[in-house]
Amino acid sequence: MTETRTEHTIVNPSSLPKPSGYAHGVRAGRTVYLGGQTALDADMRIVGGGIVAQFEQAFSNVLTTLAEAGGQPRDLVSVTIYLTDVDDYMANGREIGRLWRSMAGSDYPAMAGIGVTRLWQREALIEIQGIAEIPAHRA
């Protein structure tokens, strides 16, 4: 069996906390794998303010990594959102949807929301990971 390997490029934006034991993203060809992002700010602290503020920070971290890899929000093809309180997320769905549209537009990728008992940082309410495909004309 022949194994074809593509070159992988690690993507760690300098504006995000320096990763230890993981990468913020990996670009393989035109595909960008976006590592799970919680609401860590530049000082390595989870932002306060509840699920809406944490969504905004976590999604901003995802989009920062995507931009560093040469992508744009419309390049997202899949997003998975891990939540410690699904009901809280749903109760704030309109505000979160408004934030999504202001940050990424109104084209939505394939998405999943998954309830979990906790995330890596105890204060984290949300973690977002994704996959993007950069079109050939921009690759």
Describe this structure as you would to a colleague.
By secondary structure, the chain is α+β, with helices and mostly antiparallel strands. It is built from 3 helices and 6 strands. Helices cover 27% and strands 27% of the residues. A 6-stranded mixed β-sheet has the order 1-2-3-6-4-5, covered by helices on one side. β2 and β3 (31-37) form a beta hairpin. The longest helix is centred in the middle third of the chain and has 19 residues, at 50-68. The radius of gyration is 15 Å and the shape is globular. The protein starts with 7 loop residues before the first strand and ends in a 6-residue tail after the last strand.
Series of H and E elements: EEEHEHHEE
Strand content: 25-35%
Give the low-confidence spans. Answer: none
The major beta sheet can be summarized as: 6 strands, mixed
Number of helices: 3
Task: Determine the fraction of residues in helical runs and give it as a percent range.
Answer: 25-40%
State the secondary-structure class.
alpha+beta
Rounded radius of gyration (Å): 15 Å
Distance linking N and C termini? 29 Å
The strand count comes to: 6
> Can you list the strand order of the major beta sheet?
1-2-3-6-4-5
Approximate shape? globular
Quote the average pLDDT. Answer: 93
Topology:
Elements: E1 8-11, E2 25-28, E3 31-37, H1 50-68, E4 76-83, H2 86-91, H3 93-104, E5 110-115, E6 126-133
Give the structure's gist in a few sentences.
With 139 residues, the chain is an alpha+beta fold. Helix content is 27%, strand content 27%. The chain has three helices and six strands.
